[in-house]
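Show me a record, fold above all:
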Amino acid sequence: MRIELSKTDPNHPLTLRLYAQEQQPAGHPRFQATKNETWWPSEKELWLGLGKTPSAYTVLKCLRTLFYKQKDRWPDRITLDARELPDEWLAAAINGIMLGGYKLWLYKSEDKPYSKFFGKEGTLTVWAKENDNQTDRVITKAKATAAVQMRVMDLMNAPGNKKPPRILAEWALESGRKHGYKVTVLEKDSLQALGMHALLSVNKGSTEPPVMILTEYTPASYTKTVVLVGKGVTFDTGGISIKGSSNMHLMKSDMGGAAAVLGTVELAARLQLPVKLVGIVPSTENCVDGASIKPGDVIDSYSGKTIEVIDTDAEGRLILADGLSYAMKNYKPDIMIDLATLTGSVVQTLGYAAAGMFTANDELASQLARAGDSSGERLWRLPIWDDYKEEIESDVADVRNYHGKPLAGAIVAAKFLEVFTGEHPAWAHLDIAGTAFGESEYAPNRAGTAFGVRLLLDYLENL
């Protein structure tokens, strides 16, 4: 799909206009997105009502749903009338239209029909205001964001056998070469030499070797360094503390944090953001084998702290412990944020509408919450008080990875991670277990959402 800019009416087969409910002009029919009539090739305009108080995210979601549900019926050329749209609505509209052409069936032998609009022959013309030089920049940003989101969604939706840790590493290396940022992959020998014992311990049950992916985007000038750490468990059986079989196939999504980090670094490089951005992804499978770590084992970590493993299904926090410690020792970030599909507890608390945010820094919490509200990838702050610290005390090691209680699971996981942040004053943990892989237009069950990419972009742009 090409996206062009026009200052005059291009008179394409279909012009798309957006309006709030009270703005519906007289004499124009209100078309519903759920109807399947093939009326638009012969109609000049499609008016899409967005309700009384729509947000940019409303625009994105409505257009993504509309264009996906009618994916095989659009004309090759469409005009988006953006003359009265604010920049954030225009960006959301382009993002939603492009995501409406996303194809989930990565490995089907026969493709389903899609309109040529979503292919090389398709053209979306943005009808903009006269002398509006900002529109080109908005279009560029929206296109890049949607392209990265779809790449991340492909990663999330791929099954475990198609994306072992080495494939995540290859994805990052290819992206770095294409978009001009540094990528280093620490393989098993290097991890052993460095003492990444927590990551290596989780990997002991898998035949696929672990990696630590280090991505580094450095602009010509910057004032702040932000480090993102993403959990990259490419498939999670739970290890010896094995999960139930009914939904285990969905554990291909346990690298949602890694996907968000990889995607955000690529997007920052594409858009040349004025922030130094480092992405750290510890990646492994968590499988069952005679060599697997066992409940009760005590393991070492990169930080030097020892960990009693109470539950091998609490493995994400183990590999993040090494990732966070490595970030602190080697990059000394101004701000450090980790993202992880970490706990079922956060889903029980917040459902699928928001991710859990944990930080002791009020300013960082406020900035991230604002970015969440603006992007539609919302966050809700949960406590990380020291009242919960005793839950991770161990009799035999410096800390234990799980408290063994059916309550406050997400909070206790955050307290565990905090141990490995070196008391960093601007650290936040985002538990995205309920938002990275959820219900969407693309699948009757669940699919990757690319949660975190738009959130972090909004945050980084406003630092």
Summary: The radius of gyration is 23 Å. The chain has twelve helices and 19 strands.
